[in-house]
Design goal:
The chain is of the alpha/beta class and 327 residues long. The protein has ten helices and 13 strands.
């Protein structure tokens, strides 16, 4: 069985590749990397020799078509995306063109080749925007409030359109906040990296944006296992929320990191980190996904936080060693 991961060199894609290599040996793992990121695949260090990489830009239809014809995947996990919400307000056209155009090219390439892989469009709760009630169910209206969220809503709707029009087996998942050590622009990872730098004397204070947003957290290792379970067991044409079981504000999460720190952590808001508009309440209903799959997370919130902090301390340790060599 062949699985193709778009964005395999990214944080989520690389964790998914690690999971498939370690736990699904019957699956031959292929991944798409862009030409300007193909030489910087540090995220794939754990599985690099056991995955097949294909240089391709989803914005270029011909290269996408060639990968489909070459690999002939049985399943596709579509994770490739410009995914920084705050930055999407600064470069909205680039985000919209990349995320919507790349998804359209991917689906159209599958259609014209006549292949029928199960496809998972990996989306986000940002598509719901500012919600009126919680927990958020899959039938809640899409009210995106950022260019990134608009692009993900468009991906979601494209997936449903191709399912409806061409009977392509497409599943849409909306993954809520995950603790992902490999993605430095997520608030949790940014906080943990700054804590580690302050501990080592590389930084004086921690900078943050809005601390009032409320999130439900899941470990990235549970998240990628859930992606596998979804593509195996979920019903094409349907959308599924996926998330953890621990809910806290961003500020509460920061205080947990401060309590675990080896040094005092002064902090202040940086206006540059605030978004013009924000989806501040992201608490999912998991009922539909659990009913379809029986899936439950394996890692506790405490384990996830420790995993994140240990990873970030190791990153900063390497920074310190590199500085020492230069001196």
């Amino acid at each position: 069985m062949k699985a193709l991961i778009t964005g395999i060199g990214g944080s989520g894609g690389s964790y998914l590749a690690d999971y498939l290599v370690a736990h699904q040996p019957q699956v031959e793992v292929h991944g798409i990397t862009r030409w300007h990121s193909a030489t910087t695949l540090a995220n794939l260090a754990e599985c690099r020799g056991r995955v097949h990489l294909h240089e391709c830009d989803l914005g270029d239809f011909v290269s996408v078509l060639e990968v489909m014809q070459k690999v002939k995947p049985d399943m596709i996990f579509h994770l490739a995306s410009h995914a920084n919400v705050r930055t999407s307000f600064i470069t909205p056209l680039a985000v919209l063109q990349n995320n919507i155009g790349g998804t359209a090219n991917l689906l159209e390439a599958v259609r014209v080749t006549g292949l029928s892989p199960r496809i998972q469009l990996c989306s986000t709760p940002e598509v719901y925007g500012k919600v009126a009630k919680i927990p958020i169910t899959e039938d809640a209206p899409m009210n995106p409030v950022s260019p990134y969220a608009v692009s993900k809503a468009a991906q979601d709707l494209l997936g449903y359109a191709y399912f409806s029009a061409y009977q392509m087996p497409i599943i849409r998942t909306r993954m809520f906040t995950y603790l992902n050590p490999r993605r430095a622009d997520l608030f949790a990872t940014s906080f943990a990296l700054q804590v580690a730098r302050i501990e080592r004397g590389l930084q004086a204070e921690l900078l943050h944006g809005n601390l009032e947003s409320t999130r439900t957290y899941i470990d990235v290792r549970d998240a990628v296992e859930a992606y596998w379970v979804a593509i195996e067991k979920c019903v094409p044409g349907e959308a599924y929320n996926i998330g953890g079981s621990t809910t806290k504000t961003v500020g509460e999460f920061l205080e947990i990191l401060k309590a675990k720190s080896r040094a005092p952590i002064p902090s202040r808001v940086d206006p540059r980190l605030l978004r013009p508009a924000d989806a501040t309440l992201q608490i999912p209903s998991m009922e539909k996904f659990v009913k379809a799959t029986g899936w439950r997370p394996k890692y506790s919130f405490e384990q996830s936080v420790e995993h994140l902090l240990q990873h970030c301390r190791a990153v900063v340790d390497r920074e310190v060693e590199a500085l020492a060599v230069k001196i």
